[in-house]
Amino acid sequence: MAEQINPWSSTPKMDINRLIADFGIEPFAPVKEKIADQPVFIRRDIVAGHRGYDAVADAIVQKKPFHVLTGFMPSGHPHFGHLMVMKEVVWHIQQGGKGFISMADREAHAVRGLSWDACDRYAREYMECLYALGFSGEIYSQRRNNALKDLAFEAATKVNFSELSAIYGFGPETELAHAVSVSMQVADILYPQLVAGVAPTVVPVGIDQDPHIRLTRDITNALRMFLVEDRGTHISIRVKNAPEGALDAVAKRFCGAKKYEGHIDLPAGHTADEVDAVVREVERAFGGFGFLLPSATYHSFLQGLQGGKMSSSVPDSLVWFDDPDKDVKKKIMGALTGGRQTLEEQKKLGGEPEKCSIYQLNRFHMQDDDKELAGMCRACKAGELMCGTCKKETLERVRNFLREFREKRDEVAHMVEW
């Protein structure tokens, strides 16, 4: 039986490789070969899986339009656990994508019980961090975005509570606002295509957010007016939810089209992608959405400094971007490592960097040079690099990053309008 993923759990215990297999997520390794200049998170396989990313990779290579969106629930201060997805969004924008960020204040209010003022306060901090990293595009509030709320209502017409229960484990005790926040998540993912044109859209997330992606892809299909099928010998266009006159309009767009009750067959010479693009135009002309299936990339979690996932409920597991230096030092120097019990064992047996929160912090963020990282890993395993030395070196990298990051945040603070 497949393990259920809870997007709201602060301490998920997941085997990412098993989840990829259980939920039909595609391994990222094959598609990454399409990308010539790979960033750290792709080179080092931190992004481990995807749904439908080939369309986005092709758009990057062919310099065609695409969108990138992700969301942040403004329920606490931003920290290193948020940095990976921020970097992924900014990198996609640098590759030509149009950027969107949802500040999921409705979700924070419904799920975490935060006041609207608190949501706004935290949202400003996230925005400042995003701008400091180079974000450009639209950042919006769920509760203030009327177009988004209308889209969420449309999405909600295509899902029932039984489906939500199966996907999220909702039960009789689930508050209605929590369930409604799910339709807002779906609308967030589809929003870029609503306002900036139908195009491939990637949503970089941690793998715990996959339920939202799966549901959105199902609803995207449910919102379509037509289904385009490649039958090998011909292309068939079948009516799903099309209004009167839409089928005739589709038939007029293709020479040799044979119209039947409820469907159209096209002769050989057409491709499914070509036909689908035309059908989407007709759908939009008749008041439909014609959305493309959204894509997603899934990155593995940055290990918390005390093991497990970084969690705001365990302050020593993470470094907040605004932590004072004494707290940063305490957390880094007190972090759980992959070292042995004694210095003698460490020299004899070597360390285990794959279990070490300090090594993983360098692998994710603090060491951009692949050769330096490989050298650190080799020295650890050989018993040449002691945990105390490694922590001190990493502490200096973290201090330098935070100092520079704070300077950049000060420089962009004027851009935050909320």
TrEMBL record:
Tell me which EC number(s) this protein carries: 6.1.1.2
Q: Which UniProt keywords apply?
A: Aminoacyl-tRNA synthetase, ATP-binding, Ligase, Nucleotide-binding, Protein biosynthesis
Query: What domain of life is recorded for the organism?
Result: Archaea
GO MF annotation, one: tryptophan-tRNA ligase activity
What general EC class does the enzyme of this chain belong to? ligase
Which InterPro entries does the UniProt record give? aa-tRNA-synth_Ic, Rossmann-like_a/b/a_fold, Trp-tRNA-ligase
PANTHER family hit by this protein = TRYPTOPHAN--TRNA LIGASE (PTHR10055:SF5), TRYPTOPHANYL-TRNA SYNTHETASE (PTHR10055)
Q: Which family does it belong to?
A: Belongs to the class-I aminoacyl-tRNA synthetase family.
Q: What is this protein called?
A: tryptophan--tRNA ligase
Native organism is Methanocorpusculum petauri
Lineage of the species this protein comes from = Archaea, Methanobacteriati, Methanobacteriota, Stenosarchaea group, Methanomicrobia
